[in-house]
Amino acid sequence: MKPPADIRFLITAGPTREFFDPIRYISNRSSGKMGYAIAEAARAISPQVVLVSGPTALTPPKGVEFVSVTTAEQMAKAVWRLFGGVDVCIMAAAVCDFRPTKTAAKKIKKGTFSGVLELEPTPDILAELGRSRKSQVLVGFAAETDDLEKNARQKLLRKGLSFIVANDASTFEAETSRPSFLGGEGKIERLPEMPKSEVAKAIVERAMRLVRPP
Predict the structure, then answer these.
(1) I need a labelling partner for 211 at 20 to 30 A (CA). Which of 1, 24, 78, 86 fits?
(2) What are the φ and ψ backbone dihedral angles of 12, each rounded to 5 degrees?
């Protein structure tokens, strides 16, 4: 059994940006706070932590290997490259589900815009990891505006995850969270509202129980 210091973590954080001209993009409200807190919690028990992050205003935790990305495609390539060498992968990033089908070479002028922005799906990073994982613990997140636990349960099964962290979408820019952990066989653990730093520790501890079962 590996000691905690030998457990290798891969964590994603932040949003992605999907450009439709050189200066404009679609994105989401993710601040990256949850993913960065998870990286810090993981670093407290292991020196082997890689954080792949989309654009945020945050400073990476000390001692963490940091990989900066912008788009979903870039995040996918980084994560798929690193995944085979880790024990725990915690996908806290809010990756855009869609991107513009075309990126204009120059800034689109207001008077020339057709009013239609055509979109296509971005790579489904989590689903690909779920299909390819062997012994890795794979943790996903579900941020929902309604039917939180039902939608999270469906995502857990559809993506092939070890467990999923379900949050109301209103926690994106908040300092606290009240998540639920959903695992296999219908198991669910509802946490009280607490700072994201404490939620991060709970997520890492739960992942470690799966890597090193009692």
Answers:
(1) 78
(2) -115, 155
* Active-site position among 27, 28, 56, 151: 28
Instruction: Render pLDDT for 142-201 as a digit per residue (tens, 0 to 9).
Output: 988 788 889 999 999 999 999 999 988 777 778 888 899 999 777 899 999 999 999 999
67 and 80 Cβ atoms separated by less than 8 Å:
no
Q: Is 28 a catalytic residue?
A: yes
* Per-residue pLDDT reduced to its tens digit, 19-38: 999 999 999 999 999 999 99
- Give the C-alpha separation, 118 to 214, whole Å: 51
- Of 156, 143, 172, 196, which is closest to residue 37 (Cα–Cα)? 196
Is residue 163 within 8 A of residue 90, CB to CB? The reply is: no
Residues counted in the chain: 214
